[in-house]
Amino acid sequence: MARKFITYFDKEGEYYTDELILVVKDKLDLAENIKHIVIASATGESALKLADAVGDRVKIINVTHHYGFSGENESDISDEMIQKLEAEGIVTLFGLHAFSGAARGVTNKYGGYSPLDVVADTFRMFSHGIKVAAEISIMAADAGLIPAGEEIIAIGGRGHGVDSAVILTPVNAKNLFDMKIHEIIAMPRD
Description:
Elements: E1 7-9, H1 17-30, E2 36-40, H2 45-54, E3 59-64, H3 79-87, E4 91-94, H4 101-110, H5 115-124, H6 128-142, E5 152-156, E6 164-169, E7 180-188
Parallel strand pairs: 1-7, 2-3, 2-5, 3-4
Antiparallel strand pairs: 5-6, 6-7
Helix pairs in contact: 1-2, 5-6
């Protein structure tokens, strides 16, 4: 048995990014087996802050929106930021959202819901950031950037900044229901 603590923020949002990164750094100091962190950072700012805090003890993968998310043929992250992240050893993944992707195009056109909408909404019952953390871990595993089956830290949020972090064992998308969330490190309470 182990007694562990969860950090709860008052509400979701970018105001907790710096605090969340400190909490993750503290957890990383205690978790010897963690070798990878995936972080959702559309602009790369949160990923850069994370790298400044934890150094090169772990491999950091930044997951940003796919091209076209905010506007046709547009990227939410600048080429300059990608270069800064690469200089820190951070790989940036552009990819379709694991819980929506092309299925969102179908539901936008024809209505209805995808089974993945139910999965996403179930994770959102904890927090939007927990949903994002689970989703980006699948995306990174499917891209071959993290190993499926090995515990990692996954960090997410909503919109800007990050407010949720978990220790989980990622899976490839085809094995969605084999994902294991081992610990919630931090999340918004409301």
